């Protein structure tokens, strides 16, 4: 009788140990899903995954960590959108102060700024593509249109120390 009880206890413990292991693996999988959405700036998707995870497992350290990171990314995205709007408005008004302020200091960008300084932007219509995000880098395309001609520029932003910087502003050929 004692032998049977011990066997039952051992089997039950093995079953719970195996289920704990699979929950741990499942937790690691969810964590990686959080990171993929986070690194690709899929903020709505990340928010949905966090809510779903929170309903099943409650507030885990990963949920708390990624909720904080989500809020930080949402703020960074808003800052970039404001920067793009401000630069676009200033270009239409023939101003380059914000662009100069946020442009990284390298030889190519300095030469590009020198070229842009000599252009009268009041004759151009400015179009900006949807921004694509990848880890700490964002990219878009700026088009300057005169009606007859259109000039395209690849723009690359980098987010460091809570500030967006234009690291590449290059004409497409």
What does this structure look like?
- The protein has 173 residues and is an alpha+beta fold.
- The chain is 59% helix and 21% strand.
- It contains five helices and five strands.
- The chain has helices at residues 2-39, 43-57, 61-92, 97-102, 107-117, and strands at 125-128, 132-134, 137-145, 150-160, 163-171.
- Strands 1, 2, 3, 4 and 5 form a five-stranded antiparallel β-sheet that branches.
- Helix 1 runs antiparallel to helix 2, helix 1 (2-39) runs parallel beside helix 3 (61-92) and helix 2 (43-57) packs antiparallel against helix 3 (61-92).
- It is elongated and about 95 Å long.
- The model is unreliable at 14-21 (pLDDT under 50).
Q: Report the span from N to C terminus.
A: 85 Å
Shape descriptor: elongated
Mean pLDDT: 84
Sheet with most strands = 5 strands, antiparallel
Q: By helix and strand content, what is the structural category? A: alpha+beta
Low-pLDDT segments, ≥5 res? 14-21
User: What is the count of β-strands?
Assistant: 5
Q: Into which percent range does the helicity of residues fall?
A: 55-70%
The helix/strand series, from N terminus to C terminus, equals HHHHHEEEEE
Portion of residues in beta strands equals: 15-25%
Query: Helical segment tally?
Result: 5
Radius of gyration, taken over Cα atoms and rounded to an integer in Å: 26 Å
């Amino acid at each position: 009788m004692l032998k049977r009880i011990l066997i039952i206890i051992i089997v039950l413990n093995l079953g719970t140990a195996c289920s704990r292991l699979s929950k741990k693996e499942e937790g690691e999988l969810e964590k990686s899903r959080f990171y993929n959405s986070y690194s690709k700036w899929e903020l709505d998707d990340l928010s949905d995954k966090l809510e779903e995870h929170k309903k099943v497992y409650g507030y885990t350290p990963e949920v708390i960590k990624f909720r904080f990171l989500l809020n930080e990314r949402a703020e960074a995205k808003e800052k970039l959108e404001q920067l793009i709007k401000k630069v676009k408005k200033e270009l239409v008004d023939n101003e380059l102060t914000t662009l100069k302020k946020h442009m990284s200091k390298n030889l190519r960008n300095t030469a590009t700024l020198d070229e842009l300084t000599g252009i009268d932007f009041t004759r151009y219509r400015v179009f900006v593509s949807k921004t694509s995000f990848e880890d700490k880098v964002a990219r878009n395309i700026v088009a300057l249109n005169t009606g007859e001609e259109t000039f395209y520029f690849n723009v690359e932003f980098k987010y460091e120390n809570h500030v967006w910087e234009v690291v590449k502003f290059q004409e497409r050929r």
